[in-house]
Amino acid sequence: MCWRIHISLLVVLVQVFGIAAFTNTDDFVALKSLKDVWNNVPPNWDGADPCGSDWDGISCSNSRVVSITLASFNLSGQLSSDIEGLSELQTLDLSYNKGMTGALPSAIGNLKKLSSLILVGCGFSGPIPPSIGSLQQLVYLSLNSNNFVGEIPPSIGSLSNLYWLDLADNKLSGTIPVSNGSTPGLDMLINTKHFHFGRNQLSGEIPSQLFSSNLTLIHLLLENNQLTGSIPSSLGFVQTLEVVRLDRNSLTGPVPRNLNSLTSVHELDVSNNSFDATDVPPWFSSLQSLTSLIMENTRIQGQLPVSLFSLSQLQTVALKNNRINGTLNIGSSHSSQLQLIDLQNNFIDAFTQRADLSEIQYVTKEERIITAPFLTSLIPHTQHQQKIAQLFLVVQIKCLVQHANKLMTTFKSHGQPVDSVSLSNPTKNVDRYLELNLQVFPSGQDYFNRTGISGIGFMMSNQTFKPPPGFGPFYFIANTYPNFPGLTEGSHKSSNTGVIIGAAVGGSVLFLLLLLAGVYAFRQKRRAETATKKSDPFASWDRTANSGGVPEIKGAKSFSFEEIRRCTNNFSEMNEIGIGGYGKVYRGTLPNGKLVAIKRSQKGSNQGGLEFKTEIELLSRVHHRNVVSLVGFCFDHGEQMLVYEYITNGSLKDSLTGRSGIRLDWTRRLRIALGAARGVQYLHDQANPPIIHRDIKSNNILLDEKMNAKVADFGLSKPMGEPERGHVTTQVKGTMGYLDPEYYMTQELTEKSDVYSFGVLLFELLTSRSPIVKGKYIVREVKQAMDKTKELYNLEDILDPIVASNMAPRSVEKLVDLALRCVQELGANRPTMSDVVKEIENVMEFAGLNPNTSASTSESYEGVKKEFDHPYTNESLFAYSGAFSPTRKLEESDVKGRQICTIVVEVFV
Description:
Shape: flat
Largest sheet: 14 strands, mixed
Binding site for ATP: 599
Radius of gyration: 32 Å
Subcellular location: Membrane
Strand content: 15-25%
CATH class of the domain at 650-873: Mainly Alpha
Domain Protein kinase: 571-847
Transmembrane segments: 499-522
Main location: membrane
CATH architecture of the domain at 650-873: Orthogonal Bundle
Oligomer: single chain
């Protein structure tokens, strides 16, 4: 028996050491050391042959590791000095792993063959080691979006092959280094195309020595630092420049006149500096490639030359808060691309109007804004910021079709497993960059595997994709991909087979058999407990607490705590989307790719137990397009969680207050009112038993991706059984401002209590005001101000300007009439929700609208073409699959059963 064990041991050892021979020993030792200090490494990082076993993210050549690409793998830990053992390494990409922290080791300078060092969007800190200057083969150096501090190492100037240098969005300080005798500097990087240093704490002057005619830069990004002094005139020598961002510094002095030599520049932004008062530079008109001229708060003065507007590529002229005066003349041959001229807070006193342009209505000089083509009416101060933001998006979104086409072509040409892509949610951030969501869909499989994610992440972080003109450069902020098969967190599993076998050789066969038997019995017991729990998820429900009996549910799925934890990435802050008295709300992704919102009660507290029970029971049996769907619940590990469908555009309250960035025209407000009314009518008339919501308010009306209204939050709702038809006497609950006064006085709850709350909601839609502001109640304010003998009932000062400017004021008056009927003192005088629905339908028809058309089809109040409607619709603007069609939207079949890899893209434009 003993000799047989030894023979088996010998065979296994031969196999182990035979396999190890395929991967260089030094490389294996280095990878093993990295694996031991990293969490969440791929499950197949096992065994002694990374090259032969195709470890995820590891590429080899002739038994040597040449590439590590682990973007978006949810890694955590530190990059240890052991990395220097990978002496043949050419590519290191650990991007989008926020858990990768600590300092970058000086030993990284020993990787002499490294050509790409890409650590975008991690948590690295400390100074950038000067040893990076030893990486003479380096082409891509991307350390942006970390927490690096200290100065930019002058040694980087020794990297003669460097093409891409991105140090943006860190905490770097000190001056920009230039060469001095034996000391290198960034002026030596004559082959580098990209200097991205924005959003740091760099100080001192921009060195004149930094620029020369030898430099081949195309992008110079120094925005949002603490730079002082004047713009060096030597900048004009770099005639290859296409994008120049110097905005939001403390630059002084004159604006150099020789910038007229930058004939290739298409975006120039020097806003928010303290330049000397300067006449409008004459070189404006010589920049023939210019698409965006942005010089806000720069103290330029004088009259704009008419030739500026004839530049063929010009799209945006943003010159607000200056001293521009005289007559504005955009000429008869202005650019057909021109979309925005922003001249707020200047001293222009006249506009040369052409017959073929729309009528101009002048307002005060301080509020002047002109849009083109065609010029539209000047808009009031309360709306112009939204108008500017929207026009900025229009300018950029027109290029997104090209962007999606080219992106998909790049994926295919590089063999990535991508079926289609979607670009959506474009917004302008505080840095004046265009942000949009990129969704990538897998091809021929339900989920991306690690190899696919690694390839996509590296393609993006390595700038393999080249965007269309006017869309570059860009960087990506990727979400961690949560659905790798077999993901195990914190795994440091040892693969030391020799130790295991050695422990086994000692006569432990019987012990192992007994252990296996015990494990089997334990697992069988656990399976039985799990099966029991699934069949009765409320077996542990505390019937003695103030939460009523065990919930009675129909069809809602019971999730385990572990399932919820996985789909929220362990309840990460990144997935936290809200908080309230009940607890926090998280965004989650189910294994089938469905997005959900998870409301988690405060652990260990009985607060919310009754609300939890009420929502499960009610929502599990109501199904209507205007009522939020309950996907399931979790009652496990002492947790109470509700899992809803994910509603993209948040609450109506968010849109009315401007928090969501979505503004609502009159058409959309009517459609939202109708959708909400239909949802409440369903609860009153079709649910079995009928349900009184008891907390109708704008916070509880959610807007989906097509701006359809959905009634939400049933924690206070009350079912009306047959014995309770008419009314039920109950403790008063609700929200002040929306609360039915009759219910408050009598404690008798009826369906008409919801009608009162809905009337207040209509006033919110009409005014964009909260029900109670500084002690003033909107219902009383309207009643006191209204005069039915005047147009709009004399309510112009109370109505939202978007509503007051509606082309069919009679439709506004009709909705005011309905709202007043809903808030009658006596419930008997109020209409039913069925009547409310019919009346809103009549209002819509009176306004020339079809009440049965989806909310997403209405045009925004700004009158922008539908295909560029965002942010008024939050639909995916473009989806690509095969031949591109700009009108194609993502259908349910596109995402059903497939997990989406979502990457947030910030595009420098």
